[in-house]
Amino acid sequence: MKLFSAETYKNRRNNLKKAIGKGQILFLGNNEAPMNYTDNTFRFRQDSSFLYYFGINLPGLSALIDIDHDQEIIFGHEFSIDDIIWIGPHESLASLASKVGVEQTISPSEIDKYIFKNAVHFLPQYRFDNQIFLSELLDQKVSELKPSLSLIQAVIAQRSIKTAEEILQMTEAVNITRQMHITAMKSTSAGKMEYEVVGKILETMHGHNAELSYPVIFSVNGQTLHNHYHGNKMHAGQLAINDSGCETEMGYAGDITRTIPVSGKFTQKQKDIYETVLEMEVSSIESLKPELMYRDVHLSANKILLTNLKSLGLVNGNVDDMLTEGVGGLFMPHGLGHMIGLDVHDLEALGENYVGYRDGLERCTQLGLKSLRMAKELEAGHVITVEPGCYFIPELISKYKSEGKFKDFVNYSKLEEYLDFGGVRIEDNVLITESGYEILGEVIPKGVEEVEEIMK
Ligand SMILES: [Mn+2]
């Protein structure tokens, strides 16, 4: 099992203890999740906060930091001979625990002897089995469990700032993801099925001992933002969106999107939209630096979108007025990006608004802005995705047209020509540095000529 040094985990826990001050902190690791019956399970994925503070990538664990008694305990079973018969010999839990700087391992059945029900901080639980476990442990109804706000905030503050060893992991994730994207570019052609390309993407990924950080989005219907259907035959003249990324053995994620022409060559009409999105992406990235509010970057990207759509005759009017009205949401109904780290949408299990918003910065309800997961000021050490897009969603266009929405701005008759266009999205993962930014990983082709060259 790949682990950072014991010092890394100890330092992380010590910083957390300082932030929380007193009481106890309980972290629940994940359990195996049954797929169709108990013994047939989904791929095991450890909880990211558990990984961050305790590193051990095994099911059935929980861990206690008792600040008042200066004690750290990992609760879990040692492997029995029955386990070993089925899964083979394993390093003992006690030995793994000592590698992450924890000297005490205790059977889970003892946990209630160590927990002070009124002094224990815990995070929001997204898995039902852990909700039930906590409910029974603390004698509270599931609906009445109260996660600790101070713990949520402390964990977010800590995990948001990536250290050099984490950046190495994330760079590795992006570099494998890059190979997945180059494979997709090389294996896409007219007449093939989408799933054939998805198969190649997965083959490349598994060949690097990586796993998906989220389900692959590969589709000629890119206007559907999270399209996991891969059953279409691809035709010349279509665009395919490939939004796929992997996580390393240690759980750090990459999240990259490229949009490619099925035929290997962009048409002029596709280029117009593609280069608009590319301009949004590049200019957003180039503006990144600490203290910049990410919501402003989202809005600047929208401004480029509206300016270019205006020159294509798809919208008319004053661009700033359109920005205020939220016209951009019709074409880009999602946010510019999100934090990324051990989770592909990093830390969202703790509450999206705690991650991307702050006191005095409320989430806007306009289409587009309402899906902006990261709005607050950037800090050195943040890693975020920059992923502008432009989509033509027939159902949304026809709804807005029939409601007369944005009728002073949107040229609905010209939009008729784009109803079968699909969509374009381009995404990179970017580290905020003291002096600006750094795109993680080796360059992944995104210029029109570069993409066409690879697809030749
Ligand atoms: Mn993303």
UniProtKB/TrEMBL annotation:
<protein>
    <recommendedName>
        <fullName>Xaa-Pro aminopeptidase</fullName>
        <ecNumber>3.4.11.9</ecNumber>
    </recommendedName>
</protein>
<keyword id="KW-0031">Aminopeptidase</keyword>
<dbReference type="InterPro" id="IPR007865">
    <property type="entry name" value="Aminopep_P_N"/>
</dbReference>
<dbReference type="GO" id="GO:0030145">
    <property type="term" value="F:manganese ion binding"/>
</dbReference>
<dbReference type="Pfam" id="PF05195">
    <property type="entry name" value="AMP_N"/>
</dbReference>
<keyword id="KW-0482">Metalloprotease</keyword>
<keyword id="KW-0479">Metal-binding</keyword>
<keyword id="KW-0645">Protease</keyword>
<dbReference type="GO" id="GO:0005829">
    <property type="term" value="C:cytosol"/>
</dbReference>
<dbReference type="GO" id="GO:0006508">
    <property type="term" value="P:proteolysis"/>
</dbReference>
<dbReference type="GO" id="GO:0070006">
    <property type="term" value="F:metalloaminopeptidase activity"/>
</dbReference>
<dbReference type="Pfam" id="PF00557">
    <property type="entry name" value="Peptidase_M24"/>
</dbReference>
<dbReference type="InterPro" id="IPR001131">
    <property type="entry name" value="Peptidase_M24B_aminopep-P_CS"/>
</dbReference>
<feature type="domain" description="Aminopeptidase P N-terminal">
    <location>
        <begin position="4"/>
        <end position="129"/>
    </location>
</feature>
<dbReference type="InterPro" id="IPR000994">
    <property type="entry name" value="Pept_M24"/>
</dbReference>
<dbReference type="InterPro" id="IPR052433">
    <property type="entry name" value="X-Pro_dipept-like"/>
</dbReference>
<dbReference type="InterPro" id="IPR036005">
    <property type="entry name" value="Creatinase/aminopeptidase-like"/>
</dbReference>
<comment type="similarity">
    <text>Belongs to the peptidase M24B family.</text>
</comment>
<dbReference type="InterPro" id="IPR029149">
    <property type="entry name" value="Creatin/AminoP/Spt16_N"/>
</dbReference>
<keyword id="KW-0378">Hydrolase</keyword>
<keyword id="KW-0464">Manganese</keyword>
